[in-house]
Design goal:
This protein has helices at 13-26, 43-47, 69-78, 81-90, 110-123, 172-179, 238-253, 271-284, 300-309, 323-334, 390-411; strands spanning 5-9, 31-35, 56-57, 65-67, 95-97, 102-105, 127-129, 137-139, 144-146, 150-152, 154-157, 188-190, 194-196, 207-216, 219-230, 234-236, 259-264, 336-343, 351-353, 367-368, 371-376, 383-385. It is an alpha+beta fold and 412 residues long. The strands form 6 sheets. It has a 6-stranded mixed beta sheet, covered by helices on one side. Bound molecules: flavin-adenine dinucleotide.
Length: 412
């Protein structure tokens, strides 16, 4: 008798986890087949965390997620963040937690994570068909027909979104969903640098601690602190990436929305403390050059730009600073404002905002309301998270639930 077949579309983070959970749940009573458009599976996993794969975080509060966060909460009830760590440890992957709570493989190599998943997929005799993009899904009276030739009783769509298409996620999953009459919300790049018109070229290449807040009509949309990377087109680094989704989402909704970024270049130091420091330096070291005033606070090149932005000449002595210049300088250090023109696109983004909304999904099983035996997981769903392991955590856990439900759905 023909055995039920579960087709998983996409061998990325969520698809590989779906395949493993499906095979474990099936206990040999169903065939699990993964379709992957690229020549190898898990290509994006290798690029994560700068090649180290930040696979989860010790702080799994839902406030780190955006979009339909009810889905995250529901998935975490079935597959908790702790269960994911246990899952990887069962696969032989030792883990380490850094000071910020980010969780990495002990080897510090993303390839170790992919290997652990690949070896398990092999052990469970899951078939992976590489270089096989799925272009069509047709509903038949007995199940689903993929690419007009492969029959599946259940399907998991784990195609990812549109971010970083070089790693395979080219957005083709949305076309599959639309062919099934499933609606998706507008998608936008997130965790991507901010573009600022006429950004000072003198800042290019500087890395410095700072806090970033982005505002629209005076309201704070998002804020983040960490190492800012100044580029020739704007701001990058974790704080800029963290706030980018809020800007990108708003600009997608309303292309005419005006967003500003405010940079605090001395986070943790109050305006009073800065003023006291400058006044003390002026009194005790009146002959010190202005260009050397801020070297204890920020990189010298950034300090010089900060001075010139308020027309303080770097080569002048401190005794030339009048009270007005001191207060302008302090205000400029604490809150430099730039107008954001846009964010970098999907090619540079780490993740996709938007996607399949909760209204299209059964929260308990991740099956589509319009197609009970088709499940969705990972980045294609309207969920994205902060930097720090949150997107992979969502991909692993939603993938595992989708794989489990896909098998349960076709075996019962
Ligand atoms: C540079 C970079 C660094 C990142 N670092 C981190 C990090 O450290 N921590 C973190 O949590 N997140 C990180 N992310 C985000 C994280 O990698 C993604 O959110 C996650 O991989 C999404 O998993 P997914 O399975 O949904 O999609 P993907 O990993 O994108 O996998 C989708 C797979 O489906 C395949 N596919 C697509 N369409 C089809 C089709 N029609 N037929 C067959 N196959 C198809 C693709 O080739 C791909 O292999 C990073 C992302 C990038 C780009």
């Amino acid at each position: 008798m023909k055995r039920p077949a579960v087709a998983i579309i996409g061998a990325g983070a969520s698809g590989l986890c779906a395949a493993i959970e499906a095979a474990v749940t099936a206990k040999g009573k169903a065939d699990i087949v993964v379709f992957e458009s690229l020549a190898r599976c898990g290509k994006k996993i290798l690029a994560t965390g700068n090649g180290r794969c930040n696979l989860s975080n010790a702080d799994t509060d839902l406030s780190h997620y955006y979009g339909d966060t009810a889905l995250v909460s529901s998935v975490f009830e079935s597959y908790s963040p702790q269960s994911t760590l246990d899952f990887f440890q069962t696969l032989g992957l030792f883990l380490r937690v850094d000071q910020a709570g980010r969780i990495y493989p002990l080897s510090n190599q993303a390839s170790a994570v992919l290997d652990a998943l690949r070896f398990e997929v092999q052990r469970l005799q899951v078939e992976i068909k590489t270089e096989t993009p799925v272009k069509t899904i047709e509903k038949t009276k007995d199940g689903y027909l993929l690419n007009g030739s492969f029959f599946a009783d259940s399907v998991v769509i784990a195609c990812g979104g549109k971010a970083a298409p070089v790693h395979g996620s080219d957005g083709s999953g949305y076309a599959l969903l639309h062919s099934l009459q499933v609606k998706t919300t507008p998608v936008f790049p997130a965790l991507t640098p901010l573009i600022i018109d006429q950004f000072p070229k003198s800042l290019k290449g500087i890395r410095a601690e700072g806090s970033i807040a982005v505002k629209n009509r005076g309201k704070i949309l998002a804020q983040s602190t960490g190492e800012i990377q100044y580029t020739d087109y704007g701001l990058s680094g974790i704080p800029a990436m963290q706030v980018s989704g809020a800007v990108s989402g708003l600009l997608t909704e309303d292309p005419n929305a005006v967003c500003h970024v405010f940079i605090d270049r001395a986070p943790g130091v109050s305006e009073e403390q800065l003023t006291d420091y400058i006044m003390r330096q002026k009194k005790e070291r009146p002959a010190l050059l202005c260009e050397d005033l801020l070297t204890g606070i920020m990189p010298k090149r950034l300090g010089v730009t900060v001075l010139t932005e308020v027309s303080v000449q770097p080569q002048k002595n401190l005794n030339a600073l009048n009270a007005g210049a001191v207060s302008a300088l302090v205000a400029n250090i604490k809150s430099k404002k730039y107008k954001i023109s846009s964010v970098c696109g999907f090619a540079e983004a780490q993740v996709t905002g938007g996607g399949v909304p909760v209204s299209e999904i059964n929260m308990q099983t991740l099956a589509l309301n319009k197609a009970a035996h088709i499940h969705v997981c990972g980045e294609i769903v309207n969920v994205h998270g902060d930097c720090g392991g949150y997107n992979l955590l969502w991909a692993w856990n939603s993938g595992r639930l989708a794989g489990y439900s896909a098998v349960k759905g076709c075996l019962c």
